[in-house]
Write a structure and sequence with these properties.
By secondary structure, the chain is α+β, with helices and mostly antiparallel strands. The chain has 14 helices and 16 strands. Helices cover 43% and strands 13% of the residues. The longest helix has 53 residues. This is Wall-associated receptor kinase 3-like.
Length: 441
């Protein structure tokens, strides 16, 4: 039988690309694919025949999808470009702001002074990053606040090495006092005294400087003296030891370090206690460095009501005797467990120092002394501390002892009465108390 050319390509599926054999139409030496009536498409395997409506819908769907994908891709790319630009711009702006604050807060001056300092003396001052301290305090949350004062806010923080610290956000540094502020940081970094809260470092990249101190766990002397739940463990022996430790610190600040420091805000709230009731003097935010060739400084009066030296308040002339007066008020707090200022009391008894001196003059001291420290064993020692407090509270600074003399006197009182085992002799009682015994029996 003679083969015909009409069905060669269409008869063999490998020789054509039509979707179905019936869609294949042979021609001389070739073929073509044709959809049946009512269908549209190329009738090929790649472009099969479809009903007209389905094809249109499909084409519209494909076109819509392509359009959406194109638009979305364009938007995403645009957003990424904008984000990257803003991120770069924001980082640059943030870096610029940090640099500005660092300069305004005296960072370059501090770096220079620290580089000139003998590194074998004092403590290393670490420069903390802003982000590190934010993270340590949970972005300075309310729950991390452990203290508020006229010179800043204090937060409890946890550093990456699990060290617990106290972070103080100081008030904004006056541009005219930057040198003084930096000098104080350098001076504090050189203080090497176990009864001073240690300055670990600072951060100067914020509008207000951040100072980082060691954390002291047992609250303040103010808490222990004026909260009943803490007072029951606060014996006279502990109180006298705290007085001795604080006096030694102030004597050290006034006379031992190369550039003397006047604390200017000594009060029971600025005396921290550790778990063994060891005193740690804190908060040097109001402190002033004293040039060696000056005995007094003219300053704006700063401090806490009830502890302020009356002479300093009147003249504005700050001396180391101003700290002596404030320490005298703390001594009276230790003797009485009363607050330096109490607005709940009658007007003539609101100021503790004034009330104490009046009661002493009127031989009515037993009315104000804390019953917990008044006992026959300690009465002689107690009265010597009473008269030391009286000397510290003299209106004229020149009539007050120096802190070095105060520290020596407390040490002498402690040693004498310890050697006597606290026994009060009759002749000593008459000498200390006068003809009228001020304590009830």
């Amino acid at each position: 039988m003679k083969a015909t050319w009409e069905n060669v390509e269409c008869a063999d599926n490998s020789l054509n690309s039509c979707e179905k054999q019936e869609y294949c139409v042979n021609s001389h030496g070739s073929y073509k694919c044709t959809c049946p009536t009512g269908y549209y498409g190329s009738a090929t395997k790649d472009d099969p025949c479809m009903i007209e409506g389905h094809t249109a819908s499909r084409k519209k769907l494909v076109l819509a999808i392509k359009t959406i994908v194109g638009v979305c891709s364009g938007i995403i790319v645009s957003l990424l470009v904008v984000f990257w630009f803003n991120w770069q711009h924001g980082n640059k702006k943030l870096r610029k702001m940090k640099e500005t604050f660092f300069v305004e807060n005296g960072g370059h001056i501090l770096h220079k002074k620290l580089s000139e300092r003998d590194v074998s003396v004092g403590n290393t001052v670490k420069m903390f990053a802003v982000e590190e301290l934010k993270k340590a305090t949970d972005n300075y949350s309310e729950n991390s606040i452990i203290g508020r004062g006229g010179f800043g806010m204090v937060y409890k923080g946890l550093l990456p090495n699990n060290q617990v610290v106290a972070i103080k956000r100081s008030v904004k540094v006056d541009p005219g006092q930057v040198d003084q502020f930096i000098n104080e940081i350098v001076a504090l970094s050189q203080i090497n005294n176990k009864n001073v809260v240690k300055l670990l470092g600072c951060c100067l990249e914020t509008e207000v400087p951040l100072l980082v101190y060691e954390f002291i766990s047992n609250g303040t002397l103010h808490d222990h003296l004026h909260r009943d739940e803490k007072l029951h463990v606060f014996s006279w022996d502990i109180r006298l030891r705290i007085a001795a430790e604080v006096a030694e610190v102030l004597a050290y600040l006034h006379t031992t370090i190369s550039i003397p420091i006047i604390h200017r805000d000594i009060k029971s709230a600025n005396i921290l206690l550790d778990d063994k009731y060891i005193a740690k003097v804190a908060d040097f935010g109001a402190s002033k460095l004293v040039p060696v060739d000056e005995e007094q400084l003219g300053t704006m009066v700063q401090g806490t009501c009830g502890y302020l030296d009356p002479e300093y308040m009147q003249t504005g002339e700050l001396t180391d005797k101003s700290d002596v007066y404030s320490f005298g008020v703390v001594l009276v707090e230790l003797l009485t467990s009363e607050k330096a200022i109490s607005y709940a009391k009658p007007e003539n008894e609101r100021n503790l120092a004034v009330c104490f001196l009046r009661k002493l003059k009127e031989t009515r001291l037993f009315e104000i002394l804390d019953d917990k420290v008044v006992n026959d064993r300690a009465i002689g020692q107690l009265m010597q501390v009473v008269y030391l407090a009286k000397r510290c509270l003299e209106l004229k600074g020149e009539d007050r002892p120096t802190m070095k003399e105060v520290a020596r006197e407390i040490d002498r009182i402690d040693r004498i009465w310890s050697s006597k085992n606290g026994v009060l002799l009759e002749e000593e009682s008459e000498y200390l108390l006068g003809k009228t015994h001020v304590f009830p029996h």
